[in-house]
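Problem 12. The chain below contains 115 residues. Write out its predicted structure in token notation.
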Amino acid sequence: VHLVESGGGLVQPGGSLRLSCAASGFTFSRYVMSWYRQAPGKERELVAQIDINGLSTNYADSVKGRFTISRDNAKNTVYLQMNSLKPEDTAVYYCNALIIGMAYWGQGTQVTVSS
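Solution.
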């Protein structure tokens, strides 16, 4: 299993970023995919989750209405569109796949929201 995140960077408050996670080594279309984040000194938290067909999504209360998770099963990729970014969204963002009870993680991508 291999998960590779990209798309992070430095953005001003109110700005947008789109994260991508390219997956390989498993049948991507059969598994729920998630985005987590971890800010300095804080525990890793679930940001968004999407079912295998992309029809059902869940979001942390802190990002509802601002973030959108989506997936392209033909490209084995999951996305996180982040709008109206706030300084408190600053964190390392991780892609996650839960496969037969085992969690797999990417290396993470840094998102920094600052003026």
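Discussion. Residues 31 and 99 are 7 Å apart (CA to CA). Students who got a different answer should revisit the alignment rule from Section 12.3.
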